[in-house]
């Protein structure tokens, strides 16, 4: 009945399509176009079709360095996030169902606290007069405060915590496909708990691990607030460079070309992601 | 022994996960003029301080009005789109669904820059309208996804019964479908409000010197100064989010909402 009224369909979809065109499709196309323009500095540019912005990024050693920084940091954050989140996800998978929902909510609740606020929390913990340094000084373990903020260490710790809920969601989804009785079956057949975990649960949870790592890496390499605040302007990454080029140096064509390159890395991660989904017969 | 070790590990991991939130609560009651832990004394003065800080009060007002506009427009735009996606069969439906959720897959920093570049010539940069439009991009994927799922899980028999009893599609929507999806509407509106209110990266590109949202004001403040005032402000924001989460939890349960 409803399905045979194309005008109704058009009316229902029109506002959404108009919104997406104005705030999504057009801006991205314009960004792509801008990346080929010739930069004249200070917010001005000349319409052109040049690959100069891309070449500058790909040939200048400084930008190679920040790309390496971004990738290295993201890899480390992904590793730490996985190590710290896996036990939580495993615990959530095994915990008695009456407690499960409460722990699930606690696990993902940090997502609903702004990244700015959580990053500020880490400054309080890691700063020169913060929790960690005060405790260590008090205990006499150190004489001068450790440098935990305004460098990569702080960014690494902050990003790990900020990305843990996302990793948890991916891992929980992975565990969701697992039958809790499998482990018990293995143990009833004589496997020790440790062996049952290594031979049964761990291999079956790998699809969730792969997806979680990919998600964490993608979110990490594009994160901006935490590196900017915890890095104190001394940690140089691709995302912070896009911001500086766009809003401080007003070099829009160059910022645009870096954004397009970042999108390409993202696209690559997405292709991998969908391959993995098909491979593991997800959904 | 193994059990104790296991519980200790899980507890420490949760402590790490919640550490920045817990610490912000503690420091917000500090009496010190600077950021130090543990505080040398306790007071509520920083809560009073944020009310006296004109910049934060103004930023709060701006964020509130943006979030309210975004919530209203987001639900008004998202609901019909979700209905169309779940109740109509048409070519390009799958494609449209991917388009509507695609902004979730693009880094915010790229979205922010692209919006700035388009809004500058359109004179929408540094305006309320521009920020509302930009935040729509953040909330619409969630609103459309939540509502499309809830329309899909709603049996067609309800509206078909109404239609066969002589109701027009319009009446069937208002009297039958809408009451049944009200919980999802509340959940998506609440989520839209929180997402807009907390959004910082895209906003950074579209705010002006005298025209800042609250997260941007906090971001800029923390960049140059750190004192317990931000902790007090953070607690207010956390409580606001918590309130919204409770509304969602009451309406449909948090886990149905994020799935």
What does this structure look like?
The complex is a heterodimer of chains A (283) and B (259). With 283 residues, chain A is mostly helical. Chain A has twelve helices and two strands. Chain A has a two-stranded antiparallel sheet. In chain A, strand 1 and strand 2 form a beta hairpin. In chain A, helix 2 packs across helix 3, helix 7 packs across helix 9 and helix 8 runs antiparallel to helix 9. The mean pLDDT of chain A is 87. Chain B has 259 residues and is mainly alpha-helical. Chain B has two domains: 43 residues, no CATH class; 206 residues, MetI-like (MetI-like fold, Orthogonal Bundle). In chain B, 77% of the residues lie in helices and 0% in strands. Chain B is globular. Classes of the chains: A mainly alpha (283), B mainly alpha (259). Chains A and B meet through helix 1, helix 3, helix 4, helix 5 and helix 7 of A and helix 1, helix 3, helix 4, helix 5 and helix 6 of B.
- Overall geometry of chain B comes to globular
Largest interface: A-B, 80 and 82 residues
Q: Which stretches of chain A of 5+ consecutive residues score pLDDT under 50?
A: none
Can you name the CATH architecture of chain A? Answer: Orthogonal Bundle
Number of helices of chain B: 12
Main sheet of chain B, how many strands, which sense, barrel?
A: none
Largest sheet of chain A: 2 strands, antiparallel
Structural class of chain A: mainly alpha
Number of domains of chain B: 2
Major sheet strand order of chain A: 1-2
| Total strands of chain B | 0
Distance separating the two termini of chain B:
37 Å
CATH T-level topology of chain A: MetI-like fold
CATH fold topology of the largest domain in chain B: MetI-like fold
The number of helices of chain A is 12
DSSP helix fraction of chain A: over 70%
**How much helix, percentage-wise, in residues of chain B?**
over 70%
């Amino acid at each position: 009945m409803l399905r045979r009224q194309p005008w109704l369909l058009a009316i229902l979809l029109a506002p959404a399509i108009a919104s997406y065109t104005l705030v999504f499709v057009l801006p991205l196309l314009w960004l792509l176009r801008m990346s080929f323009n010739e930069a004249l500095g200070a917010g001005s540019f000349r319409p052109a079709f040049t690959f100069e912005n891309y070449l500058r990024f790909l040939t200048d050693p400084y930008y190679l360095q920040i790309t390496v920084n971004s990738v290295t940091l993201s890899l480390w954050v992904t590793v730490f996030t996985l190590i710290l989140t896996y036990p939580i996800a495993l615990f959530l998978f095994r915990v008695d169902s009456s407690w499960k929902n409460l722990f699930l909510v606690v696990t993902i609740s940090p997502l609903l606290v702004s990244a700015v606020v959580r990053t500020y929390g880490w400054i309080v913990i890691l700063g020169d007069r913060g929790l960690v340094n005060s405790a260590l000084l008090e205990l006499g373990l150190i004489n001068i405060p450790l440098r935990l903020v305004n460098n990569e260490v702080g960014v690494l710790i902050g990003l790990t915590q900020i990305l843990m809920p996302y990793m948890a969601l991916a891992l929980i989804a992975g565990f969701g496909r697992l039958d809790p009785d499998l482990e018990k079956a293995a143990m009833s057949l004589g496997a020790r708990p440790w062996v049952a975990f290594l031979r049964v649960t761990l291999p079956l949870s790998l699809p969730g691990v792969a997806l979680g790592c990919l998600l964490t890496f993608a979110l990490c390499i594009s994160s901006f607030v935490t590196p900017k605040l915890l890095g104190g302007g001394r940690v140089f990454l691709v995302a912070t460079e896009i911001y500086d080029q766009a809003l401080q140096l007003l070099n829009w064509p160059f910022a645009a070309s870096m954004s397009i390159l970042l999108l390409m890395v993202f696209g690559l991660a997405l292709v991998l992601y969908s391959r993995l989904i098909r491979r593991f017969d997800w959904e | 022994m193994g059990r104790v070790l296991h519980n200790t590990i899980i507890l420490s991991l949760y402590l790490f996960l919640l550490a920045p939130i817990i610490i912000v609560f503690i420091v917000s009651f500090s009496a010190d003029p600077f950021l130090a832990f543990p505080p040398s004394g306790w007071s509520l003065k920083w809560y009073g301080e944020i009310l006296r800080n004109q910049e934060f009060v103004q930023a709060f007002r701006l964020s509130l009005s943006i979030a309210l506009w975004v919530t209203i427009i987001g639900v008004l735009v998202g609901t019909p789109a979700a209905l169309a996606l779940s109740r109509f069969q048409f070519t390009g439906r799958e494609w449209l669904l991917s388009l509507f959720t695609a902004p979730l897959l693009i880094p915010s920093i790229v979205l922010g820059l692209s919006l700035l570049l388009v809004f500058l010539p359109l004179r929408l940069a540094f305006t309320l309208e521009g920020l509302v439009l930009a935040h729509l991009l953040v909330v619409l994927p969630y609103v459309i996804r939540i509502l499309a799922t809830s329309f899909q899980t709603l049996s067609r028999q309800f509206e078909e019964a109404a239609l066969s009893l002589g109701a027009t599609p319009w009446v069937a929507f208002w009297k039958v479908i809408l009451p049944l999806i009200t919980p999802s509407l509340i959940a998506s509106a609440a989520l839209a409000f929180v997402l807009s209110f907390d959004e910082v990266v895209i906003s950074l590109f579209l705010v002006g010197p005298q025209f800042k949202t609250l997260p941007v004001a906090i971001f800029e403040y923390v960049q140059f100064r750190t004192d317990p005032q931000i902790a007090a402000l953070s607690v207010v924001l956390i409580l606001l989010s918590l309130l919204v989460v409770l509304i969602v939890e009451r309406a449909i349960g948090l886990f149905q909402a994020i799935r």
